Amino acid sequence: MDECVVDNHPQYAVKFSKIGYRKDGNITNIPLYLVGKTKELLEGERDLE
C-alpha cells in the first residue's frame, strides 16, 4: 500500500482495520467502529497541516 501512495500521491490514504485510530506514515488507520466518521476525521487531519 505504501508504494501505491508514493506512486500516486492521493489526497488521502486510508486503511480500515480493527486497530485504533493512528497516522502511520502516509496512511491513516481508521478503526471499523469509526467508519461513519471518516470524512470528519480526514477533514480534521487536513486542518492540522
Automatic annotation (TrEMBL):
Name this protein carries in UniProt: Uncharacterized protein
Organism: Anaerotignum faecicola
Lineage: Bacteria, Bacillati, Bacillota, Clostridia, Lachnospirales
